[in-house]
Model the fold of this input.
Amino acid sequence: MKTVLVTGASGDVAAHLRRELAGRYKLRLSDLRPLQGKAKGESFMKADISRMADALRITKGVDAIVHLGGYSVEGPWEAILQANIIGCYNIFEAARRNGVKRILFATSNHAVGFYRRERTIDHAVYIKPDGRYGVSKVFGEALGSLYADKYGMEVFLMRIGNVNAKPIDKRRLSILFTPRDLAQLVSIGIDHPDIRFEIVYGVSGNKRSWYDNSNAYRLGYKPLDDSEAFAAEIVARGEVEHPVGGLFQGGAFTHVEEVPNPAPLPKKAAATKAAVKKKAAKKRAAGPRRKVSKRSPRAGR
Ligand code: 15L
Done:
């Protein structure tokens, strides 16, 4: 049985994955946060992936890595820098130094979130990140490309939509990724014999999809779910979308500076965030600022 390292193991996506993959692989779980309950076949290693020593420790002796760890939404640069830039580099580099060939990276629909909703995009389109978070995912994709070409690593990049059993709003009808479809795609990424460098979309077989996911289908992915089963219910809510977010695939990420983050910030990032807030409050108290012109929604490529 293969030993697979799952980073970000205390998060929501990993919780689904652990349940779905139980008994199929030996799971080495890792996170900065504590882990709730360990099942048979699972082991846990606490680690801060922004430290190379930790990354080296957790990647030693595994057959494959599913790298989910990181800051999972748009947010403060310092948090994204530590977790998604430095942390992601450390995981790729530690994998190389430890001779781990296969790495699956959870990139995101936000690496291409500034494509307009009327476009159908495939795995070969140019990047269009919709924020700092999206840029950090593009950085991980670039690392994947480098480590595949330069060091012969086998890299499987999953541009994940929204992992959930049901779509939560209109946008998510197009990007729903159910837990069992997630587990199927991840298994392909771990076990397919011919992965060198692949980009696939981590979404179910949604009728309203914005993606041409033929690259995943070529590798054997056959999604079992389609968000359409929930479409009537969601559409009946009459949701009014934001004038900018509603135009683009990335939704709110295209116009907000922060999305509420379910995971606590690493200590250093939390301290930076508090300092930035304090500075802003001081500036506000000091008097009126220069007027900044408002951007208008860009035309999509
Ligand atoms: C993501 O990349 C996030 O990790 C997830 O929390 C969702 O916000 C998702 O995108 C989404 O676009 O719905």
